[in-house]
Amino acid sequence: MSAVGTTRATPAAAGFSRGTQWWTLFVFTCGGGVVLIEPSPYEFAFFLALFVFMVSGLRLGAGGLVMIVLLMLYNIGGLFSLIPFLDDGDAVRFIGVSFYLAVTAAFFAALVQEDAQWRMHALTWGLVSGATIASIAGILGYFDIAGLGAIFTLHDRASGTFKDPNVLGTFVILPLVLLAQAVLLSGRLRLRYLVPMAIIVFGGVFLSFSRGAWGHMILSMALMTLLTFMFVAGPQQRLRITVLAITGIIGALVALAVALSIEELRSMFELRAAVVQHYDVGATGRFGRIGRAIPELLDRPNGYGPMQFRRDWFEDPHNVYLNAFAAYGWLGGLSYLLLIGATIFVGWRLIATPSDMQAFAIAVWSVLFVQILQGMTIDTDHWRHFYLLLGLTWGLFDRCARRPHHRRSPASQPASTA
């Protein structure tokens, strides 16, 4: 069942009512779309959600424990690297945020162990609402409606309720993929799906003018469609998915042509659509820094230290794998590589295993896998939605492994969405 659809009621767990849990999770994940100020509403809502669900009952599986151990080793490496910079407030805050985000991943891994369909329904609509709000802010800012350009744009690109257009553009991908999957599986072109999809694509992805977000959206949507076609859809749904996918591609191309008929949009698109920008190349460019920094890191067991790479190279690494060694040292870097390698193994195994949450797992993994690849060109280790995806992947893997009675035949029809 796609998490966008209607879920079947199950008995309430001990503690807070299921309605309270639903709205708490909705507000929490919706708050993830508003991070223009820090601490953001997401942080306050997280601790509320943690309290509500701990009282109601949380549990972790073996896979979740593996994830936590690797995340802790990663952050312990960061603590060792921090020691020479304890007087640097930014560095201390950086490691503090890393520990906090690891806790959020553990929370999401535990969240799906019980009442998963109900909880993921709340999570999905919270994400959709947050992404829609952020995307509307991006539209208002980009076109400077009511003088909001100074608040919701950065470098002539829509940043919405985020501080960085690149983060806006990637945050909205998961809710967009979940909505698209609901359309593909149900075949219902409902306004509750299509309107937020249109707003998110235009205001959240296109107007961010982020090459990473554009590629992320295209690859995640393509991967979700392919995996849904292969592992979830029945014969009739496969025909419908094929027709809707082709129709969607044609519609997207027409919409792009209409958008590019506006001179302002076309000029910015042509500027940003180049595969390589001027700041990517050369000895001091993004790729040049990577090649020159790696030999130095071989002689630095503790790396450069948290937030210190920019002091030697004038900018951050813009590569999460390089940053793992630069900010967290050898221990942190190796732990991060192990975490990503294990996650890739778990993710591909998860989506190929029939279960009542298989469609949702495919949507989550399609976005996370592309984001793992995207880490080669940008620092993703402090993206809140990365830890959301990470925790959900490991949690769903645990749930599937220990609940074989929830599995279904691959050929069976998934539950219809509402």
The structural domain count equals 1
For the largest beta-sheet, the strand count, sense and barrel status come to: 2 strands, antiparallel
Question: Helix count?
Answer: 17
Structural class: mainly alpha
- Rounded to an integer in angstroms, the radius of gyration calculated over CA atoms is 21 Å
Q: Please give the number of β-strands.
A: 2
Q: How large is the share of residues in beta strands?
A: under 5%
Q: Provide the low-confidence segments as ranges.
A: 8-13, 409-418
pLDDT averaged over residues:
88
- Report, as a whole number of angstroms, the end-to-end distance: 10 Å
Percent of residues in helices comes to: 55-70%
Q: Notable features of this structure?
A:
2 strands; mainly alpha; 17 helices; disordered C terminus; globular; 418 residues
Explain how this protein is built:
- By secondary structure, the chain is an all-alpha fold.
- It contains 17 helices and 2 strands.
- The chain has a two-stranded antiparallel ribbon with strand order 1-2.
- A hairpin with a 2-residue loop joins strand 1 (153-154) and strand 2 (157-158).
- Mean pLDDT is 88; it is low at 8-13 and 409-418.
Give a short overview.
This protein is mostly helical and 418 residues long.
